[in-house]
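[step 3/7] fold_predict: job queued, chain A
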Amino acid sequence: MFNIATVPKSARQALSQDGLSLLNPAELTATLELPTPAWTSGWQSLTDSWDCLPPDAHLKDGGHYRKRRHSCFVQELATGALIQTPHRAHWQPTDYNALHGGFERWFDPVEPKVATAPAWTDLLASLGRLFAQVQPAARWHIEAHQFRIDTAGGVGRPTPEGAHRDGVDFVVVMMVARHGVKGGETRVFDANGPHGVRFVMQEPLTALLLDDARVIHETTPILPADGHPGKSFRDTLVLTYRAAGFQAP
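[step 4/7] structure written:
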């Protein structure tokens, strides 16, 4: 298990066999059949929206290092339709998130200019089609989270809840930007055994795809890079896909 650094595999094969697939930018666009360079250019035009994320007001560790937006979508696999739902809270049971589970967390929605952009909708829909090849589904209930973790307080914690699962079918963690930081090592472990992998996602559009039932994941804290002045941050897009509906109390 977890031979991501040795034998190349398709994303579908890696998810089916190992429960995870790590894709570099070229592999991501090729796997999802996203038209380049048009899609890449369209996506790049959206990345400034990470500069406008409001603070996460729900951090129970008292930190101020996370900014966030959140929106939900439903993808109908038969028709290909991807529809944004009325704005709703993010909720997880404590079984999956002992720190922030068990209560409704409301975040500002993804900006309309982002949520309706072809680069955004093409990404979400293409990932949904890929996951349906691994696990057939009639529809996906998708939650999209824009995250910025900064080091203004000295340290930023991408996963303050620690190693966890999300209670969904598939998880995507895509690097958007990484500026002036060190640390932030991503760790993925077999949910039922000792095997695991560790790596640092550096390049924008690097994407980690996870079968949430089979693996647990976390990212270690980030610190300002040595000798780096000014603002330091790590931006990601996290997407979750669940066939059985949105999690709710």
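[step 5/7] annotate
The chain has a mean pLDDT of 92.
The helical segments are 11-18, 25-31, 38-44, 112-115, 118-134.
exit 0
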